[in-house]
Design goal:
- By secondary structure, the protein is an all-alpha fold.
- It has a domain of 180 residues: MetI-like fold (Orthogonal Bundle), CATH 1.10.3720.
- Helix content is 78%, strand content 0%.
- The protein is built from 13 helices and no strands.
- Helix 5 packs antiparallel against helix 6, helix 6 crosses helix 8 and helix 7 crosses helix 8.
- The protein is globular, with a radius of gyration of 23 Å.
- The chain starts with a helix and ends in a 6-residue tail after the last helix.
Length: 314
Amino acid sequence: MGRFVVNRLASVVAVLFAISVLTFLIFQAIPNGDPALRLAGRLATPQQVQDVREQWGFDKPIYEQYGKTMKLILTGKVTSYTQQLNVLDEVRADAPATISLVTGAAVIWLGFGIVFGLLSAISAGRWLDRFLTVLALVGVSTPVFLLGAVMLYYLGYKWHLFPLGGYVKLTDDPWGWFTHLIMPWTALSVLFIGVYSRVLRSTVLDTLGEDYVRAARAKGLTERRVLVKHVLRNSMIPIISLFGLDFAAAIGGGAILTESVFNLHGIGQYAAESISRLDVPPILVITMLGAFAVVILSAVVDVVYALLDPRIRL
C-alpha cells in the first residue's frame, strides 16, 4: 500500500507540472497579441502595460516567463489589474462561501444519490424504481439557474421561508449560515443526485449477479448484510470516482452559476466577475487552482479505491 501511495504521489507531481505549463501557455503564449496588454486591460495606459511586462517577465525568454509567473502565483503576488487587489487574498476571502456551498451540497448529493440508487436497484421494475427514475431524469434535466430562480421566487420572495441569497459566515451566525445555504445546497445537489442514483443503480444490479454475492447468500447471511458488506462496497468504486472529480471541479469554479444566482460571493462568482471584466490574472489563478484541486482529489480517490478493492494496489 505504501508503494502504491508513493507512486501515485509521484504521478501527481508530474501532472501538476504539466498542468501549470499548459495553463501558462493557454493564457499567455498561445493567443496572438501582447500578453502584457491583455493582462493590463484594454483601458491601460502605456506605463501600466510596461509595468505588467516587467512584473511578469514578458520581455524575457518563454521559460523565464513561465518561472516568473509560477513564482508570482506561489508567493501570492498576483494582482488584479482592474481592481488593483491581490488575487490570492480575494480567493482566500471568498473560499469559505464556496467550501460551505460545495461541502454541504456534496453531503446531500452523495447521501441521497446512494439511498435512491440502492432503493431503485433492489426494487428494479417496480413502481418505486419507476418513480425514482422519473425524479432522476427531472433532476438531471433541470438547469441550476432555473431551479435556483424558482426557489428564490417561491421559497424566498413569495413564501418567506428562506433568506433571499447572500452568505453569512458560520462563525458569525451558525443558524444564519445554515438558512442562507439551504436553497443553494439543494439547487447544486439536484443534478448530482440524479446522476449518482442512476450510476449506482446500474452498478448494484450488475454486482447482484456476481458469484461472490450468491455465495454470501448461500452461507446464510441476511439480505441486509449482503447488500451493505458485499454489494454496496463493491458498487461504490465508480461513485467514489465521480464524487472526487465533481467535488474538486465544484470547488475550482464549477459552482459559478449557483453562487451567481444566490449572490454568495464565492470563488465561482469572483471568477464570473473577472471574466465579465476581462481581468486575466484572477482567471489564470482560479483556473490553475481548480485544475490542481481536481488532480489532487483524483489521487485521493485512487487511494480510497485501493482501500475498497485491494486488487487495485496490484
